[in-house]
Amino acid sequence: MVQFLIETSWWVPGYGLLGALLTLPWSIGVVRRTGPRPAAYINVLMTLVALIHCGLLLWVVWDMTTQYVSLPWLSVLDLDITLSLELSRVSVGAALIITVLSLIAQIFALGYLEKDWALARFYALMGFFEGAMSGLVLSNSLFLSYALLEMLTLSTYLLVGFWYAQPLVVTAARDAFLTKRVGDVLLLMGVVTVGLLAGDLDFPYLEAWAETANLSPLVANLVGLALIAGPVGKCAQFPLNLWLDEAMEGPNPASILRNSVVVACGAYVLIRVQPIVALSPVALTTLMVLGTVTAIGSSLVAIAQIDIKRALSHTTSAYLGLVFLAVGMQQDEVALLFLLTHGIAKALLFMCTGSVILTTSTQDLREMGGLGSRMPATVSSFVIGALGSVGLVPLGCFWAMYQWAAPVWQSSLGLLAVLLLVNGLTAFGLTRVFGLVFCGAVTPKTRRAPESPWPIAVPMVAMAIATLLLPAMLYRWHLLPAWNEVNLAIVAALFASSITGCGLGVFFYLGSRPLPQPSGAVWNSFQDFLAHDFRIETLYRLTVVFAVSQGSRFTAWFDQYVVDGMVNLLGVASLIGGESLKYTISGRARNYLLTVFIGVILGIAWLGWMF
Amino acid sequence: MLSVLIWLPVIGALIISCLPQERAAVRGRQVALMFATIVLVWTGWLVLQFDASVAGFQFQESLPWIQQLGLRYQLGMDGLSLPLIVLNSLLVWLAIYSSDTNLNRPRLWYCLMLLLEAGVAGAFLAENLLLFFLFYEVELIPLYLMVAIWGGARRGYAATKFLIYTALSGILILAAFFGLALLSGTGSFDYTVLQNPALPIGTQLVLLITLMIGFGIKIPVVPLHTWLPDTHVEAPTPASVLLAGVLLKLGTYGILRFGLGLFPETWQIIAPGLAWLAVVNVLYGSFVAIAQTDMKKIVAYSSVGHMGYILLAAAAATPLSIAGAIAQMVSHGLISALLFFLVGVVYAKTGTRDVTVLRGLLNPERGLPLIGTLMIAGVMASAGIPGMVGFVAEYIVYRSSLPIFPVQTLLCMVGVGLTAVYFLNLVNRAFFGRLPDALANLPAIYWKDRIPSIVVVVLVIFLGLQPNWMTRWSELTSLSLGTLDDRAMIAASLALRPLRSAD
């Protein structure tokens, strides 16, 4: 039984893909009579099966050493690629979390997309998404991880482009794909190079190889930078964060997964390749710089958003920046813990967001207000989610932040300052969203808002309970620090930064009479600058997009007028030549003879001159 | 056994040409499909009989033809020709199946299809250089006629351009073959006799370059490529499918079989230049494709780009890279055929291929949702998304070429990103967005329109998930074609040597 479960572990990602495949008759419109619902049920069922399989697997491997399963895939001459899976507490646990969240998001979507005609297509994409993610966390080979990251890119593209008839979605999907593709192509370069240098792409092998590898600094740096490029794109870190803002045009149930586990998958790959990245000090420094820039920048950007989903998704980037920073400091376990606590809290926040959006039919924070008394389940879940994602005792993210800060605070106060700043800004931003959505005056869009229907409320409340229980689970898994070793100074600092952030938020947005917003040209333009995500789109338009479009235009012009022009010129010249030469044909035999004679003499003269 | 692949279609063509005038469209189609099916089944049987553990030619046939010229009717199949023969039999069947049932002069059309199949099969199977040349030229006539008779508005221009270019390519190849046979003093055109001729390196170089220019036109290599987009734009869909799917492979087949196969030592001299040409092909093709608005031109220029990968792998000439080149031929054959099928359906239903006009075709009720879905699968396969055959082939190509030509390979990899740019633009413009009123009343779409694309998509995904089915046939042939000398040592010692990717 145990052996069977381990050998069939590769079915876990397979269930989602199978579910996606089974929904095809509905999503392409072959079966119309039943409506799209059966497709949704099939997928929920497949996810449930995956969940059970994953649970059993976790129970089996909990007390085992790490197990490996390899599936031979491609073997040609000296190239041998096996797809191998790693079954450990961490990887199977992560797969379990992914399937649980996927199940919850799918049940959520039953309510959220109830009236959408493309429900079947949505579930197909969710199945695909889930399969790729659970495969990614189980993967034990860089090759497989790369392949699955690409599949995630593809499914993000299709999910963001789900409502493809809207003009904004068209560009959003394109930008999401292309920006991530930049990261993926660089990652592919890294993967191919590492495969060549190391000879094999299994992570344990790579780890051992990295210890003894003797690379020139240049190669090590390039490989390191290439390997971090993929996760940078996936986690929307600066400078590949262009797509994040627009991607919030996608359906909300996909955003739940995107902001909790998809980004975590990107970071997970980063953690796996960390030993190779660590060969290059430049790559590590880049990682930390990018993480810091994104963490602070995105926290600021989040506060300036007027769209509820954007306001939250930028905080996701900020937290992932902290994770990047942790990986850069080689604290892999802290990074994993952070991904877990953040993922659960953020999933909850996005469920509340979905509930609010569905009820009010708007994503604009300025059109909301006064929902607190009308949506009790949503407001309490939001509060729990917000508390869970900032550094307040005793919920999840506090412990992750504590573990993050505890070993480094003495050596680097700067890092601690970054953490406190990001935490404070996030607390402020979440309080702001809370104030704008749930407090304040009632607006026309929120006047008749009811609480969400049960397919939305039940998963949301379940998730809220999970968030509350998370510290207990961490305690049982011995992931919390021992009581007598807790550094009270850090606890106090974190607590203070959260309270300051919340307090400022309350002061600005929760008061009975909101304070007048600061105004002035400089302030406005600063706010604008943040609201537009540091004008990253303009930056792209002026650099990359401009270069590619001008380059392609010039090449096309060159192709049409120079290369093909030469060909046509040659054609025309020979036609004209023939046309004009035909007038030299006089029909007199003596002229032809003369020509032949002159030709022969010239020929003989040339031969004589040559030899 | 191999002769069946050549002569059965010819017999089919003869029968079709004798069919009575009335109901020729239906009967011609039936007969053509029947013969194509038999050929396909026969190909499948040959694949089953093929012994992948033998390096040389199998199922050999040899008959004297014109002894004085050194021309023998000599056929053989090895791991290089087998995948291409399969591709040929399959795509011709699909092309006949997808032919318009109401076209003019149906008997001629189906005749030409079968003759094309015979010519291409002959070229892939010929073991005699002159015989290869004959089939290489024979194959060009049907395609010329297809474009010239059933083509679009500028068919005369396109067909003539195609004919002149390809004829020139044939002349250069013939010149190289004659030069080789005469100068080496054997007087024979047998492939095995002429391998690695004892000629001074300068002479070999001249012959090889002549040969490469000849095949370079067919591949096509920039700047000899301008016939391709023009021909594709004017050609009817089945002809486009065969042109991109099979005929271009004659060029890459030629450089592997005759360039690398006959001149393995001289190959080392031209290899770096060839690798740079590959880079030019990939980047140039991709950049031009980005600026195009005609769907067929986009796909045509993407072919130019993707053939660059084959050039790169051929230049690297390690056993693995040859295997990669063969895999890429199969992969490009399938994917470009798929894209042309889909573009053909879009054109047939909407009357335009202009991506600035088309919009919202994914619309589930009034658009072409299934065709759109298949199109997304096709462009993703072309952009090298894992799980599909394009990724497998490209990965092998990169992995095997990187130790030999690091800078060139990395530059070629940029092409993967650019492929995503132009194909995503295509999909986003034509299939996303709101369906305009002008396109709201499209003619009905039948399963007949979809089946060719579905068959190819299934293959693309299947081979992407089970790549061994594609690569196992050609391993030993790649091993014997690839050079195993100091390059293998370079590959092994690369771990200690800094990559030249810095500059």
Strand order of the largest sheet of chain B: 1-2
Largest sheet properties of chain A: 2 strands, antiparallel
Low-confidence stretches of chain A: none
Q: What average pLDDT do the residues of chain B reach?
A: 89
Q: Report the sheet-strand fraction of chain A.
A: under 5%
| Low-confidence residue ranges of chain B | 493-503
Largest interface: A-B, 60 and 71 residues
Structural Rg of chain A: 30 Å
How many helix segments of chain B?
A: 21
Helix content of chain B: over 70%
Structural class of chain A: mainly alpha
Condensed summary:
The complex is a heterodimer of chains A (611) and B (503). By secondary structure, chain A is mainly α. Chain A has helices at 2-7, 11-22, 24-27, 37-61, 89-112, 119-138, 142-160, 167-198, 203-212, 217-234, 242-247, 252-277, 281-303, 308-328, 332-360, 376-389, 396-405, 413-438, 454-476, 488-510, 521-531, 536-581, 589-610; strands at residues 67-76, 79-87.
Describe this structure in words.
The complex is a heterodimer of chains A (611) and B (503). With 611 residues, chain A is mostly helical. In chain A, 74% of the residues lie in helices and 3% in strands. In chain A, strands 1-2 form a two-stranded antiparallel sheet. Chain A is globular, with a radius of gyration of 30 Å. Chain B is mostly helical and 503 residues long. Chain B has one domain. Chain B contains 21 helices and 2 strands. Chain B has a two-stranded antiparallel sheet. The radius of gyration of chain B is 22 Å and the shape is globular. The C terminus of chain B is likely disordered. The interface between A and B is large, with 60 and 71 residues.
Tags for this model:
heterodimer; A: 611 residues; mainly alpha; 74% helix; B: 503 residues; two-stranded antiparallel ribbon; 21 helices; 71% helix; globular
